[in-house]
Specification:
14 helices; 8 strands; two-stranded antiparallel sheet; single chain; globular; mainly alpha; about 550 residues
């Protein structure tokens, strides 16, 4: 393993870890803003409770997401300085817009939302959460604009060995971006839907287990309550509506993911045919889609792959929308790539020990193949489970089965897994390029040169030992942060709505004023405010 391998592992670990938090932040933020909108319009206490509880979890995830996201900025200068030099003129625009228009807006208005409960008029306070959430969506757009340019460079020319931006509008309306953005947002909503469903199922099951809710002879729920604990009839409505809302979001979001994913696949067959051929294990030209293949892990040789089950015509449908057009396989594409971009890496200082080395244009077959299927499989499983949950809970509660509850809770991980696998597929499948070439340039009689091999992107002055130390350090720190986030989430999930509205535990009114002081914590006792947890500042 050399410096390039360690640098790739480092960026992969930090990126995938950060991306676990991004879809939950975006999806749950949209849900929380919508719930608060319904509360402001209807005045119904159940929506205030839902806003407070889910908003608390949103804040925990947002804070940890910011902490892990900051590392990404430093990666470009530390381990990937040659890459930064090559794309700096292009990336500078969308990333600056992301910081100025999105990140700062998001942070400022989220702060106003946190401290503005009962200090700002309701509608202005509502506007702050919408401004913060929409800023996070805008932030995702600019980040995806940069990443989509890496997948399909447009609006750029090469000047003195560097990519120079010639058309910012082309970058911001890149067709790769216009498909990747809705795919990412619907994926984020799928994560939020599964999150609501799993946690709400747990609380409804807990009410059944504790004997608060029962069912009559027809199987319909009989809602009970325990005064002074926050587990009243309104509490049941919080969890039941959260479950149903989450399940519907998950089902609808998966439909959106499927539609946008199909469009994305068709674009990839045009823009990165090798990536999609490898993902389908399509070593030879044909129409069949591989359902199951086996091969050597880490191999980039089609001779090491054996297709066991194949569906005729399906690959043609994914690529072209019909069932009979032959799609180029890996073995056909290899000489085409070699002719267009060379059989060997260029000679030069920036390539170091890789100068003149043969270029393998086939990505890791096992990684792309299985990441693609995990992405689709986990997404489909999550959607099917959500649809089943809508049917099972039609009579007002969940079954008393402990195993079903555990399945629902662990099911929260499925859409997270689908999102992470999709990201792994997108990035690994682009190899050996860090900036993939635009095939459209070949149609005009040549190669425009706007691409970069990964071997040329790593910082030349960084040693293997330094990279190894940093990747171990990042992994340990990120693991510690993961433990912190999971413990915080578990603590507040188990605490239920009273963990966000402590006044409910003291028998206070659970309406909009809800036994809460102006900051949203406990009523003062003897002139002093009780602090139950470090996040009391949030409300």
């Amino acid at each position: 393993m050399d410096a390039l391998d360690i640098a790739r592992w480092q960026f992969g670990i930090t990126t995938v870890y950060h991306f676990l938090m991004v879809p939950l932040t975006i999806g749950l933020g949209l849900v929380v803003a919508t719930l608060q909108t319904v509360w402001v319009r209807t005045g119904k206490d159940v929506y205030l409770r839902m806003t407070k509880f889910w908003g608390k979890l949103f804040l925990i995830n947002f804070i940890l997401g910011i902490a892990t996201g900051l590392v990404q900025e430093f990666q470009f200068g530390l381990a990937w300085s040659e890459y930064s030099r090559f794309v700096g003129d292009v990336f500078g625009a969308p990333l600056a817009l992301e910081s100025l228009l999105a990140f700062f807006t998001e942070s400022v208005f989220l702060g106003l939302w946190i401290f503005g409960w009962k200090r700002l008029p309701k509608k202005i306070h509502l506007a702050t959460i919408w401004a913060a959430v929409l800023a996070s969506v805008v932030s995702a757009y600019f980040i995806l604009a940069a990443n989509s340019w890496m997948q399909h460079p447009v609006g750029t020319e090469i000047v003195d060995g560097r990519a120079r931006l010639t058309d910012i509008w082309a970058v911001l309306t890149n067709n790769t971006l216009l498909v990747a953005f809705p795919h990412t947002i619907t994926g984020a909503l799928a994560v939020a839907g599964g999150f609501l469903l799993g946690i709400a199922w747990y609380h409804l099951w807990k009410r059944r287990k504790d004997g608060i809710d029962t069912v009559d002879a027809s199987g319909r729920v009989v809602v009970g309550e325990v005064p002074g604990t926050g587990r009243d009839k309104a509490d049941h409505r919080v969890w039941f509506r959260s479950l149903r809302i989450g399940a519907w979001i998950a089902v609808i979001a998966f439909a959106g993911v499927a539609v946008t994913g199909d469009l994305q696949a068709k674009l990839m067959f045009e823009q990165q045919p090798m990536k999609m051929a490898a993902a389908e294990s399509a070593c030879h030209d044909g129409t069949g889609f591989s359902v199951l293949a086996v091969g050597d892990v880490g191999s980039t040789d089609c001779n090491d792959v054996t297709n066991l089950i194949e569906v005729p015509g399906l690959l043609s449908f994914l690529a072209n929308g019909d069932f009979n057009t032959e799609v180029k396989g890996v073995n056909t594409l290899i000489p085409e790539y070699q002719e267009a971009y060379g059989e060997f890496l260029p000679e030069g200082e920036m390539y170091g020990d890789y100068s003149g080395a043969p270029v393998n244009y086939v990505p890791d077959l096992a990684a792309t193949y299985w990441a693609f299927r995990i992405m689709i499989g986990f997404g489909a499983i999550a959607a099917a489970a959500a649809a089943a949950a809508l049917w099972v809970t039609r009579k007002g509660t969940v079954p008393q089965s402990k195993w079903l509850m555990r399945l629902a809770v662990f099911g929260i991980l499925a859409p997270f897994g689908a999102n992470a696998a999709g990201w792994v597929f997108t990035e690994l499948g682009r190899q050996p390029f860090v900036v993939a070439p635009n095939p459209a340039a070949l149609a005009f009689g040549g190669n425009d040169g706007v691409f970069m091999f990964t071997a040329a992107a790593v910082s030349p002055g960084v040693e293997l030992s330094e990279l190894l130390f940093s990747v171990i350090a990042f992994t340990l720190v990120y693991f510690a942060l993961l433990v912190v986030e999971v413990r915080l989430l578990v603590k507040f999930v188990r605490g239920g709505v009273p963990s966000s509205m402590p006044g409910l535990l003291h028998g206070g009114d659970d309406g909009p004023s809800g036994g809460l002081d102006s900051a949203g914590g406990d009523e003062p006792e003897n002139g002093r405010k009780k602090a139950d947890d470090v996040l009391d500042f949030a409300y």
